[in-house]
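Reviewers asked in the last cycle whether our approach scales beyond single polypeptides. To address this, we selected a multi-component target totalling 450 residues and predicted its structure end to end. The input consisted of the following lines:
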Amino acid sequence: MKSEKISELTTNRLSVYLRCLKDLADGGHETVSSEALAKAYNLNSAQIRKDLANFGEFGVRGVGYCIKSLRENLTDILGLNSRRRVCIIGAGRLGAALANYYISSGKNFEVVALFDVDQQKIGKKISDVEVFDVKDFAAVAKRAKIEVAVLAVPAESAQSIADVVMGAGIKAVMNFAPVPLKVCEDVKLKTVDLTTSLDSLSYYLAGADRSNGKHMKPNGGGGRI
Amino acid sequence: MKSEKISELTTNRLSVYLRCLKDLADGGHETVSSEALAKAYNLNSAQIRKDLANFGEFGVRGVGYCIKSLRENLTDILGLNSRRRVCIIGAGRLGAALANYYISSGKNFEVVALFDVDQQKIGKKISDVEVFDVKDFAAVAKRAKIEVAVLAVPAESAQSIADVVMGAGIKAVMNFAPVPLKVCEDVKLKTVDLTTSLDSLSYYLAGADRSNGKHMKPNGGGGRI
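The resulting structure, written as structure tokens, was:
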């Protein structure tokens, strides 16, 4: 058991494997080899074996993995055998879309509350989930046993909202606001920066320009700045 | 110039620096040291210097970076000096929220078209952007000079849509569908998996359970599976 050293990239892949296995199970399959799994879902078979080996020996040589058993194991490893109670802060378009997405996309997560500062939204429901006042975050979070906070707020308010969330004892935060956040050591922060993702595609598209050195306008000087 | 070796993590950080510099410029600042930049935005000053050193020497010792000049350089490096023309495929809640988000969040990207298969949506507008029939993708993409395709479609149709997108010559794809995609070598794929992100938070929350080995149910056997 080497879970202490498991990287986020590995757990991300375990999450993908789990969904692929669900798909195979839905299709009536009972066993699958790492090669067949890799081929069916554009994955890397050596990587699958390596990732799973971190947690034990789940397969049988010549047979492959028992899909049912591997799903149970991955579900356990990812801590998904109990539904995680999630709130979304920011009931704008992105927050509402995320609420709808997580409500409709499976049973591992339960969106139990939305929060906003807009009095027009507070008390209303989005996809059957009530919108609460951010001012009442701590009380609602405690009552609703919220474990994960998803931040879909503007950049300028993200840090202060994160502080409120951490003050209420939440240990897992997913941040969609396009700004780096400072969190306590015992809080796990996951950033999904929708702008950065597009910027990195732009960098790729700009590849043709890059080779001609057009953008190089160094100021001179050097050393530690 | 070492741009060939620049990782996506580096370009992601450049994108963050660029937004932080905009914020500083908006606040009336003209120069900033790597330390001050790091402190103000929860970044790492050594990382900033290392990242920027990939592209030249942009700062002056004892003075820091000229914000205006560094912004111009980063904008050039990321290929953001011309607006990138983006389409979003899937005009459901997530697609609509992304359209709205990218339209309102800056001028680097222009959402020029949405696509869907739902005849009820085709011909309508979302945030002033027309929804086209996916069947007409190639023609619309050519006419609208689309460079980037954002996929906000269900998992089961993501690969076939990606094939249509690549068939139309698009070289940059951002995929929100929770499924691994196979793309041509010359196509840059960026995956934003909203489910995986939550799963990795769940893995963190499950940390307390992990140490007691409850989830270990290896099947025995071993070797290559």
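The mean pLDDT of chain A is 87. We regard this as preliminary and will revisit it once experimental data from Aim 1 are available.
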